[in-house]
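#onboarding

Welcome to the new folks! Below is a worked example of what a typical request in this channel looks like: someone posts a single protein sequence, and someone else replies with the predicted structure as tokens. Don't worry about understanding the tokens yet, we'll cover that in week two.

Example request:
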Amino acid sequence: MRSNTQITVSIYLDENYCIPATVMIRSLMENLGSSSEVRLFVLGLELSPATKQTMQDSWPAERLRVHWVDIEMSDYPKGFSPVGYLSQAAYARILIDRYLPSDVERVLTIDCDGLVLSDITELWNFRHRSQSV
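Example response:
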């Protein structure tokens, strides 16, 4: 049976956050409603093939399509340097339009060191309605 709702999610990480990201995606999938599926874009900075394989092997394949996007430091503006506690990979979100395919109209970006404790389908389906004053 085909799922009714396709939710596009992106995460960004380097090797230092592969374990938290793996746990976060598992929590997302374990709480996902039965009529939803996830199209996941993993924006990775210098992730090894072994890391990618280990992460993907630990996620349920049903209702999850993973797209690995390799981030290159050359994609960042010349002279770019991370500020404070944020890693270089964390800045991928400001260039996300360069990394996702043109058919992606909207995306939920989730920090890879969090946990998803309920179904994100309601959040995905939420539409802000502006009111006239």
